[in-house]
Amino acid sequence: MGTLFDLLKALCDLPGPSGAEERVQAFVAAAWREAGHTVTEAPVGNLLGRVGGKGKRLVVVAHADEISVVVKSVTTDGHCLLMSATGMSAAVNRPPNPMILGQPMTVMGRHGPVPAVLAARTGHLRSTLPDSGAGVVWNDLFLELGVGSAAAVAELGVHPGCPACFDVATRRLGGRIVGKAMDDRAALAIATELGRRAAGAKLGYELWLASTVQEENGLLGATALGASDAPFDLAIALDVGLCGDVPGVGVQEMPVRLGGGPVVVHRDSSARYHRGLTYAICAAGAKRGITVQDAAFQAYGSDSSAMFKADVPAALVAYPTRYTHTAIETVDESDLEACVALLLAFCEEAPF
Ligand SMILES: [Zn+2]
Questions:
Q1: Ligand 1 centre from 66 Cα, in Å?
Q2: Tens-level pLDDT at each residue, the chain (352 residues)
Q3: So where are the chain's domains?
Q4: How far is CA 174 from CA 190, 201, 250, 327, in A?
Q5: What distance in angstroms lies between residue 239's CA and the mean position of ligand 1's atoms?
């Protein structure tokens, strides 16, 4: 079964741009079956695992997809021009996050993954060519596939509409873990580890796990889950938490620190999460000495708001993550472990 790091690395290194999550879902389904859960796949690709226990039906939700770009067109020379998908959010004439430039990428082609790099014209020539004044903008980005014609690109199965995501291996950096898809594979690692430990525990709820598709495309998978006849009484989504402890932000702006423990998100731009459920999660943690960080996020949404719209009381638990929506999303293993412990405490104490 391996360590939490092994599980996280295996999950994080898989390609799963929104709408092409099959590889992630196959891995998750195998891990959940190995832990003894009953696993079913919904028509749109959501995965459900029934862990067990007796009581209200609680679902812990994480999303399988990661942020991505989409091929807009292919030049005669074989370069793939891009549009930004939700999550890489950017107007085409605005600068992208500079951290995404030059990264290795995976394009999900018709026949499977194709390696690429995210490129823009060289700085050596930029000074001699017309400039928008905004530096490199989204419309300047393209994928280099290492081939020389549109026909060669087509042969690889790459065409307008293909999504692409970062292809960067997850690794330890000092005491932290860096990778391309902590959003939301670290959540899937937490949920999977929770399921393993909960399978041998006495639970006060009937616990389910869900791995949703297309969260980054407007919570599509969770919306389908809420509209399905899956019978849930409570939902807790797991997702990345924003950090203030980096240069240029500050904890006054965002009072969350990496390594400071799970983040209980009271509200974001998509929802005011259920107060009673949220405080009950805090209480279950306090009973076991688990410190949580309180937060409110702007320009942020989660699967739990889709569950809330389906009339399911829903809360959001996050793990502190630096540099969200880049290829170097950074987490602290102790926060992930504490999230598992917090959720297990909630399932055992059943305070709501
Ligand atoms: Zn996310």
A1: 7
A2: 579 999 999 999 999 999 999 999 999 999 999 999 999 999 999 999 999 999 999 999 999 999 999 999 999 999 999 987 765 655 556 667 777 888 999 999 999 999 999 998 877 776 666 666 667 777 888 999 999 999 999 999 999 999 999 999 999 999 999 999 999 999 999 999 999 999 989 999 999 999 999 999 889 999 999 998 888 999 999 999 999 999 999 999 999 999 999 999 999 999 999 999 999 999 999 999 999 999 999 989 999 999 999 999 999 999 999 999 999 999 999 999 999 999 999 999 999 9
A3: 4-66+181-349, 69-166
A4: 21, 34, 22, 17
A5: 5
The crossing angle, in degrees rounded to 10, of helices 182-198 and 333-349 is 40
Model pTM score: 0.95
Q: Ligand 1 center to residue 240 CA distance, Å? A: 6
CA of 302 to the centre of ligand 1 (A): 7
Residues in Cβ contact with 180 at an 8 Å cutoff, skipping those fewer than 6 apart = 12, 13, 66, 165, 166, 167, 168, 170, 327, 328, 329
Q: How many angstroms separate the alpha carbon of residue 77 from the centre of ligand 1?
A: 35
Q: How far is the CA of 320 from the centre of ligand 1 (A)?
A: 12
Q: How far is the CA of 86 from the centre of ligand 1 (A)?
A: 11
Residue 181 C-alpha to ligand 1 middle, in angstroms? 9
Q: Structure tokens of 218?
A: 């407007």
Homologous superfamily of domain range 69-166: Peptidase M42, domain 2 (2.40.30.40)
The superfamily CATH assigns to domain 4-66+181-349 is Zn peptidases (3.40.630.10)
- C-alpha 220 – ligand 1 centre gap (Å): 12
Q: Do domains 4-66+181-349 and 69-166 have the same CATH topology?
A: no
d(CA 57, CA 30): 23
